[in-house]
Amino acid sequence: MGTSPIRRGWRWGLRGVALLLLAGIYLALERGGSAYLQRLAVLFLINLMLVVSLNLFTGFTGVFSLGHVGFMALGAYTSAILTLPIAMKKVNLPDLPAPLASTTLPFLPALILGGFTAAAVALLIGIPILRLSGHFVAVATLGFLIITRVVLINAEAFTRGTRTFTGVPPFTTLGWAALWALLNLYIAWRLKHSSLGLQVRAARDDPWGARGVGVSIARVRLIAFGISAFFTGIAGGLWAHFLTAFSPNAFYFSKTFEIIVMMIVGGMGSVTGSVLGTLLVMASTELLRNMEPGFAIGSFTFGPLYGLSQIGLAVLLILLITFRRQGLLGDQELRLEAIPERVERWLAQRKVVLESPRVRKADP
Amino acid sequence: MDGPPVLELRNVEAAYGAIRALHGLSLSLGPGEVVALLGPNGAGKTTTLRVISGLLRPVRGQVLYRGREISGRPPALIARMGIIQCPEGRQVFKNLTVRENLILGGYRLGDPDRERRNLERVLTLFPMLKERLRQPAGLLSGGQQQMLAIARALMADPEILLLDEPSLGLAPRVVEEVFEALAQLKAQGLTMLIVEQNAEKALELADRAYVLEAGRMVLADTASRLRENPDLIRIYLGR
Amino acid sequence: MHAAGSLEFWIQQLINALGLGSQYALMAVGLAMVFAVMRLINFAHGTVMMASAYIGLLLLQAGMPFPLVALGAIAGAAALGVLMERIAYRPVRGASDVALLLNSFAVAVLLENLAIMLFSPRSRPFPMPALLTRVFHPGGNLFLPSIHLWAFGGALLALSGLALFVTRTRLGLAMRAAAENPVAAQLLGIEIGKVTVLAFAIGSAMAGLAVLFWTAHVGTINPGMGFEPVLKAFVACVIGGFGTIQGAVLGGYLLGALEIVLQGLLPSGIVGYRDAMVYGILILILLVRPGGILGYLEAERV
After folding, report:
1. Domain range spanning residue B33?
2. Cα–Cα distance, B67 to B51 (Å, whole number)
3. Which of A73, A90, A168, C249 could form a disulfide linkage to C25, CB 3.0–4.6 angstroms apart?
């Protein structure tokens, strides 16, 4: 079906406006945003990557992973170890084995190696685990998360154990985060609409039928798992070079929970939904977090309410699962194209109504 | 039919999602009557039983038990009123022993005395269960499981017994045994609605029969008249 | 220390394994019962344990004698289990496995953070009576902590009671029937809702009992304390076969034995990886024998 030139014009115009808007927001933040806003923006982009990547696997395949924060940790620690200056390594990681102790990599290769480490581990554990189904995958990946944590705590030569890993160079800028997030979004979008994406979703919606037409579900799932882990690892690296100090506790249950809520809010399988979900959840937790030290309404003071933001997340998730399981968008997308299409459809409908009395559709 | 109906369906329509399974079905069941529900696969026989038992809520129409509307009530409540369904496919509790299965049959009564009396009664009806009381039900043969399923339903002292395909997948000799037992129950005055593929056997037992096709009633008559006109049945059942 | 491999060493291991295994078995039973009746992996089982410990502490601080404290903690756990089912799980019954699992995560996070809000995230000492904390020395270098005896005796009593309940009583049989075939159970007049509430109540009470021993062992309580036990209970269920009471009990004792043996035999350099191995075994069992050692349930493979 051809697209009318008018509609094509519309579409490019809208895309242009959207890009300009994004660039404007970026410049405004970069140049004029407060440190707090810039910080929030970077964290938003990193969270967005985590959510989109998780969605790339869980949303598209229908198989739940509770272990993605483990991939994030792998990316974070790999990149942090690789970029730590040699002098710093002598102090912080005196027991680091030889080749690692005497080399330091620049940011980009270290970050990408972090992503590859995560992807490699994902493929390794994915081969057996992804053959399981339903909540058993969820449980097995939760097992992986716990194993990762135990290893992080015990491999002291590499990670300093439970102590804080400090001195990570602060390489992550708003620009880097934006670049990677855009790449991640683009790839997720392309994957969803590629033949692989179609196969994955076919397998999700009808495992038996998809197998009938020759889709190897395990293989397709594995590819999605690997790509998803790669970007999760990158996000972990970006996060490490943004905060510059962290410990294994950061990569555990509360982070997992946060990402899942963001994904569910936006809708499993929706890329644009992930953007909305991340935005909404971050905004509300930020609000609640600011209330945690205590606040006053009129003459009533509430206060300190530590844990309020987590409670907010939990209540949100329960309400969603009870009343709107598909999240905001389900697996649909917000499309710029939809705007002119809607306008045209609306105009067309009006025309029909004007020309002929509406005919009621017969019952199916 | 003597006396007002015990069970009555009025213009019942039922659907699984968008797929209509029953299009305005009406039927009735008098006290002590045995009625057969016949028809080809997919005619809506099992759906009818599901509607009566409350497993499926009708889209339209009423189900009346002794004149009272029961459609939309939860299945457990309907069972407690005494409308007991013996489901298709011998759905005995395989991990439980034969004895435990039987005791659960009497769950709605909650009366140890009646439980004991009923146990004695069903074991006389199906003596082979007696030696197997301690075995897990999953170890019984198909025919034995069917008998256990019927026995379990009888433990509830049903007001109405709904039987879904009691002869399905059984050897001919076992079918004989099952229907002999059902004949004894009829003689004791039990009201039954039987869904059955084996029209011949069902018509031997039943007082009346309904024939369904594609969710609609196409024929209703006494069993004796239907037995005399086997052609009629053959046309509708496609045999 | 005992020489590894000596008879004394193994007796000591056995004592420890039975003590720990009893706790795991009690925790796992509740998880298994709930899974059996509603196919829910109730992650919030651990937070019930945590809440039960805090109830116990509050009762203790109110000056109650210890037996009443214990009873109150157990009853509180049961009540909380029932409340949880009503508020969070009943409305979503019939949802997908994963939706149910996520809901239970949410409940766990909610309760844990409520506890943080009410009691602060700090650990608090839970003073136990000497009867529970004393250690006997039956001879040689053997240690026999009385808490192991209590745990073993308590588990034996509670689990035997449970076994009698599910084989001898009308309600217990109904629960097993509903777990196996809910439709057939309803056709006999068994109300699934009632049976589910019962499973939550009993399972949570068992967890409340277990957490008394757990707390006596650790000495302190904190809002995050339920996390590890629920995971362990979960592993126990997987080992024994998910969804059966026997499987949970067997799995609990096997897990206890496994942990104690790994602890005793692993060289000190890698003993820290013990838990990694335990969860590695969890994944391995899921792959090789998804029904567990006793299980009826086959995890479907795609």
Report:
1. 1-82+203-239
2. 16
3. C249
Q: Is residue C200 part of a domain?
A: yes
Q: Are A144 and A72 in contact (CB under 8 A)?
A: no
Cα separation of the two ends of chain C: 49
pLDDT by residue (tens digit) across C91-142? 888 777 778 888 899 999 999 999 998 898 899 999 888 888 888 888 888 8
On whether the CB atoms of residues A73 and A248 are closer than 8 A, the answer is yes
Q: Which of C109, C120, C273 sits opposite A154 (nearest CB)?
A: C273
Chain C, residues 261-300, CB within 8 A of chain B, namely 296
Q: What CATH number should be reported for the domain holding residue B217?
A: 3.40.50.300
Contacts of C117 in chain A (CB under 8 A): 305-308, 311
Q: Could you report the per-residue pLDDT of A182-197, keeping only the tens digit for each?
A: 999 999 888 888 877 7
Residue B219 lies in a domain: yes
Contact (CB, 8 A) for A148 and A73:
yes
Assess if residue B40 is contained within a domain: yes
Residue C135 lies in a domain: no
CB-closest option in A136, A307, A315 to C290: A136
Does domain A36-293+302-338 bear CATH number 1.10.3470?
Answer: yes
Count of structural domains within chain B: 1
Q: What is the pLDDT of residues A10-69, one digit of tens each?
A: 777 777 887 788 888 888 787 777 888 888 899 999 999 999 999 989 887 888 899 999
Q: What is the CATH number of the domain that holds C148?
A: 1.10.3470
Question: What whole-number distance in Å separates Cα of residue A275 and Cα of residue A52?
Answer: 8
Contact between chains at C117 and A305 (C-beta distance less than 8 A): yes
Residue C248 sits at the vertex; the CA angle it makes with C244 and C252, to the nearest 5 degrees, is 170
Residue B143 lies in a domain: no
Number of domains in chain C: 1
Q: Is residue C7 part of a domain?
A: no
CB A175 within 8 A of CB A242: no
Is the CB of residue B53 less than 8 Å from the CB of residue B60?
Answer: no
d(CA A100, CA A85): 11
A357: pLDDT strictly greater than 50: no
- Specify if B63 maps to a domain: yes
CB neighbour burial string for C107-123, b if at least 16 within 10 angstroms, e if fewer: bbbbbbbbbbbebeeee
Q: Find residue C68's DSSP bridge partners.
A: none
